[in-house]
Amino acid sequence: MESDALNEQASATLAKVAGEFEEEVMAEIEAGRKETLERVESSRKATAEAIAKILETSVKQAESVKRQIIGAAELEARNAQLKSLEKAVNEVFDAAKKHVSEVEGASQEKALAALIQEGLDVIGLHAKIQCASKDKRATTAAVKRLDGKFKVTIEAEPIETIGGVVLSTPDGTVRFDNTFEARLERMRADLRKDVASVLAGGP
Q1: Which of 71, 82, 124, 138 is 20 to 30 A from residue 172's alpha carbon, by CA?
Q2: What is the pLDDT averaged over residues 137-165?
């Protein structure tokens, strides 16, 4: 009987120990599971943040590349437009030079008289005039059209020009270039605006 009692006591003790061990083991397993889940969650968040940063960087890089491409295209289009503008202006100038260089007779004398008068308004009543050798006769005729109050002398030394005149004061301190080339150059800025407006589809 005593032996049976000891066996029962031992069994009870073993059962208690086994139960406590099982509880500890289960607690450790549960703790390990929670820790594992926490690590997985932390890793998931870190991965999500990393992916978000990569996506954000990719989007920024894509936008930057897009802006560069658009900027390059706009610059190329602008350069092409400027080339077209300059080409158109040069064509107009070449046509104008050809036209004025072919003016002869009374029209030439009238044009020269107007150019000389305009120069005298700048220079004053007394002036020296230079012109191309081919225009000497027409310039002389144009001078005769002037008001008698002006004292003008035509220089013997010709200048290289397609037409028009250069006026200067007798002492040479003031000079006014009123050749066709100079007048066209003074008109170039306005001509560029007009051509640019046409290229842009303006009125």
Answers
A1: 138
A2: 87
